[in-house]
Amino acid sequence: MVERVVERGKEPEPQELMYDISYRRREAWVKKMREAPVILRSRDRKWEQNRQGLVKFYINEVVSGKLGIPNWHAFIHQIKRHSGKHKHKGGVIIYVLEGTGYTVVNGVRWDWKAGDLLILPVNPDGNEHQHFNSDPHKPAFWAAFAWHPFYQAVGMYTQQKEASPDWKGSLLPEKTHVT
Question: What is the pTM (predicted TM-score) of this model?
């Protein structure tokens, strides 16, 4: 009778299940969100003069992952005369903090005052828009909020058309900017 010998090879190392990896990452994310700052102080944010005007960023793609509300974009915009003009697909909420003015969206004027909420509509062809202050003696202020996953889903881009009159930097960018 022939005896058969079977050699047993080394058993594969146990691999971590995708479920366990996902679960562990989710637990770490929840912990990070719980420990994130609850208050973002104005004094800790700097004003930035850019092509759109004088802007103070609170949440953007640089800091949102460190906060308890990731994937948001939030900033305050001071409008002395008017903002720059640009075009993107919309989906932005703007709350007017102080002042009076109007916004021109695709050629249509929309008047606003402190306490009003502007909703820049979603438009697959884009919304060309610009914001104007109605009071030459006092700047207007508003806060804008946008959700990045929405921007990514609709293929958001921003195309700068005209700079704020307060912008003293280089010429407008020639290429479309992705936001």
Answer: 0.76
